[in-house]
Amino acid sequence: MLQKIFNKFAQALELNRAQILRVQQFMTVMQEKLVMDDYSLGMEEIPIPVINEVDDEVIPMIDYRPTTFTDLLSVAYELKKSREFCEGCSCEDNCIEPEKCECQLRTLTNTNNKSAISGYKNNLLLEKIFTGIYECNKNCKCKKLCPNRVTQQGIKVPLQIFKTFEAGWGARALCDIPKGTFISTYTGRMITNEHFSGLPKLLQRIRSNPEDVKQSLRYVAFLGDLVKNSKIPVSPIFYVDASTSGNIGRIFNHSCDPNMFAQYVFVDTHDIRLPNLVFFAKRHIPSGEELCWDYGYKPGNPNMNTECKCGSTKCRGKLF
């Protein structure tokens, strides 16, 4: 099975000899420590193996979802309604001229810093766009492989889930990742504030049980800056509940000096309440390094009592 996983890695990424040797080093360890062949259960193009070199714990099973979903009629209605007003581009040249593509122009128009890089360059996002990236969608005339559909292509980087010594399960790359590379989305079950009843009790538990921190962050509204700067009504507020459903995005741990950044990306809707949360490489990430993002703790908040153990020289001391 491991050889099949490796073959898929090499084929999908067209690895050179040096890269193949580095991946094979991890495969040697995995042979003895593998606890699951593929966390995605075949739902991703590249399998996501799980290893445990720390103890005998088996990773909890979830309802793996490559994309966010909902099983609530009221939420499904809101999603359907928002998608009806999603505009597409008129490009017939596969969007090779960003200054003429309506979707890419929407990203640029909403960007406060007009001199900044305003979108993807060679499938890379080199800096965070706080007002969001607008990808091409099903209403566009361009093809599915146009350069403005980066996150829709699924996970292309070989990833591995592993047991950490301090932070439960984590994830790392099995090859070098260039700066700006799309790594994964954060998916789960879409709910609204009306269905958001479980968080208060969970927050109370966090004060005495640090292991609950990551679980609490699986109930997330990723709308902070977008909502603050918007004059559009934002009720109801939508949340992604990844407590029992989701993808590898729910595994990523926190670091005060992260190697990934979280980016809002609009794909099948332009509703400001409904961006996808997507992770990109903040810098070059060497093979084997744990993938982390910043959970967003604000120093000085008296309600944040959980000690951070990220180990960074820039550690703020508190995680949540």
From TrEMBL:
Organism superkingdom: Eukaryota
Pre-SET domain boundaries: 87-154
Transmembrane spans: none
Keyword Transferase: yes
A GO term from the CC aspect: nucleus
Record's keyword terms, sorted: Chromosome, Methyltransferase, Nucleus, S-adenosyl-L-methionine, Transferase
Limits of the Post-SET domain: 304-320
Annotated ranges, domain SET: 157-296
InterPro entries named among the record's database cross-references: Post-SET_dom, Pre-SET_dom, SET_dom, SET_dom_sf, SETDB_methyltransferase
Molecular function per GO: histone H3K9 methyltransferase activity; zinc ion binding
Primary location: nucleus
Localization per Swiss-Prot or TrEMBL: Chromosome; Nucleus
Keyword S-adenosyl-L-methionine part of the UniProt annotation: yes
GO biological process: heterochromatin organization; methylation; negative regulation of gene expression
Protein name: Uncharacterized protein
UniProt organism field: Acrobeloides nanus
Lineage per the UniProt record: Eukaryota, Metazoa, Ecdysozoa, Nematoda, Chromadorea
